[in-house]
Amino acid sequence: MTNETPVDPYIFTTDLLPLDPRFLPPLANGLLGWRVYGDIMHMGGVYNGEGGDCHRANLPCPLAVRMDLDEVEKAGHLQHSYSLDTHTGIFTHSLRTVSVIASQSLYTHRHHPNLLVMEVLLIRQGTSREPITIKLDSRFTPQSDDIVFHSEPDYKGASYIQGQTTTAEVSGGVCPSVHIIWTPITPSLTLLPDQAQSRWGFVVVVAGSQDSVQAHYDTALELMANGNLRPSHLRAWEELWAGSTLELTGPDDLSRALIGCMFYLLSAFPSLHEAPGHFGGVSPGGLSNGGSGQDYWGHVFWDQDTWMYPSIGLFYPQLARAVLEYRVRTVDGAKDNAEKQGYKGLKFPWESAVSGREVCPEDIYGQQEIHINGDVTLAFQHYLYLTQDMSMFTEGRGSEVIWGVADYWVSRVTWSAEEQNYHILGKGTLSKHVSIENIVNDNIKYFLSHLLPSLEFAVELAALLKYPAPREWQQVADKIKIPFDQKQKYHPEYDGYKKGQFVKQADTVMLGYPLGLPMTPEVRRNDLEFYEAVTDPGGPAMTWGMFAVGWLELGEVEKAGHLLQKCFKNIQGPFQVWSESSDGSGAVNFLTGMGGFLQAVLFGYTGFRSVISTTTHHLLCIRGVSYLGNKMDWLVRGQEVYIILREGAKHTGNTKPCALQVVLKNSGTKIPLIPGKLYSIPFYFTTNSQMLKLSIQILSGYYSKVIIKYCLDIIVKL
């Protein structure tokens, strides 16, 4: 019998930092982001460069500091340790000798997003009363290739610079301003002979104006004076985790992967209490990455809406709404994109910054990658089904997005009198910049898979809002051609696709999830088998999660597990940082891959899409699922599923909690959910002892018919 202390899966610890500095942990809070020890940071919405040259502006980071001991202290036994505590979002480097424990803590403040913080703590060990000195080696210089900074007079003892980016995103536009105030960092710190311990705090404040940066620095000084700088940060993270917990007792690597994905994804989103209108969207590499030529230049792709958004929306509708509001703010640019292409409505940019105008470095992709429209509308659709918050579509202007996209699709299709179908014809000439997938007709990957649900949702929303929908929306939806091989019972990727041709990533298999195209289990299985065999094994990280979801829908748990295991090749330890490709190349802190992995678990294994798989040896817990204004906690253990509807759940905006019930699909049994009461649903309630099929439904009204089309149609495989 051992008395070993259990390892906390939320704390990633190592004695050695990764050799590749790209895999040092990124710290972000939805407004500011940087990689620990890096001399560059980024601010959401601050880009430099016009059009295809637009990229995240690199800002100098005063916290590019490494802690070390002086030579005298190094003479003794020295231990290093590095940890990222995802409970709190704090990275800590600790040094231990016989005479001192020194720790350097770094964090982006979760509640006050304009603040970066460094704290140093020295604790004397043993009986020595000699002064103990540590060195702070800084790489910081107050310069940037993207911003011409000017020094300003010190503010309350702090250094101060300000400047503007050199080039606006749009010709004739305004260049954003950046103001930075920071506590000067001395080359060394000393624990005096009469001190048992001492703590120092350093803050960096970043804002867009003088008034704002000074006000936030005043707040930082006040927080430091009353001892509330770190506690206010800790409370904000505690609140986040209380509302979104995904835990598994079982394989340690899976637990760490799930926690790491949730942590980095939450870090990319704003505070729960931040005023709307400041969020600049989520790029594939997050706020810590994205300079010129790196990590997709910090642009916002379809990745945000299709890969990252769903897992956040399941727990935090208010954060999900921030994504939708970002898209609404880019409507004018999307309209301009459509007009330049010669079409009606809205064409959201393949790569987006602030204006909504196309900023892809290679114009051809901005012209060809039109499925982004469907990705955007799918996020709006999921939000409505999860929240019934109609305000997002009225005063929030979400209806403009949905109807603008519908108008674009209608103007983009071509009618074939011979076939009596609408088609989407590929445009362009095959070249080194244009793949065959972009010029073929009726491409499921790029066009059709998103067109149909976009149009159907536009018609549905119009009915809800009593808006006179153009009849063309339904006509095109009814007559659009979806390639299907009747003989082999599968969906060719495009018109003329030959079975066995190479595929880069999951695309056609996404017809089943997340797009929800009705098909028989035979067709679903055929799609999965055909495309798994020809998909690039070294493709993007999110690919195998989508295959796993598909196999879970069919009850093939072992196949799903094998495919999901491939995702672990993209996790670069010890801080669970994902790379775009399994060999470590491509974008880093690859939130897109993390989002796909989480969806495989949340909408595959853990149920809110298809299957929960567990055994008597594993316990699966999901806390904080948000549905129609309610918060629910789920526990799957052995042969039972436990559900509790939280009491006093807060609702946001116009989303009011609805009365819910569990419906066991096998038997038809209905169990009303009462807040605060724990419900245990054993497997013997079902007609099939291996499968528990249930649905969380609203008791009455319109949404009892449509809401469960999204995610809370559940099968638990026991």
From TrEMBL:
Domain of life from the UniProt record: Eukaryota
Gene Ontology molecular-function annotations: protein-glucosylgalactosylhydroxylysine glucosidase activity
Catalytic activity: (5R)-5-O-[alpha-D-glucosyl-(1->2)-beta-D-galactosyl]-5-hydroxy-L-lysyl-[collagen] + H2O = (5R)-5-O-(beta-D-galactosyl)-5-hydroxy-L-lysyl-[collagen] + D-glucose
Stated role: Catalyzes the hydrolysis of glucose from the disaccharide unit linked to hydroxylysine residues of collagen and collagen-like proteins.
GO CC terms of this entry: cytosol
Alphabetized UniProt keyword annotations: Glycosidase, Hydrolase
Family: Belongs to the glycosyl hydrolase 65 family.
Organism: Oncorhynchus mykiss
Gene3D superfamilies, per the entry: 1.50.10.10
EC code(s) of this entry: 3.2.1.107
InterPro entries from the UniProt entry: 6-hairpin_glycosidase_sf (IPR008928), 6hp_glycosidase-like_sf (IPR012341), Glyco_hydro_65_M (IPR005195)
Domain Glycoside hydrolase family 65 central catalytic positions: 289-499
GO annotation, biological process: carbohydrate metabolic process
UniProt name for this protein: Protein-glucosylgalactosylhydroxylysine glucosidase
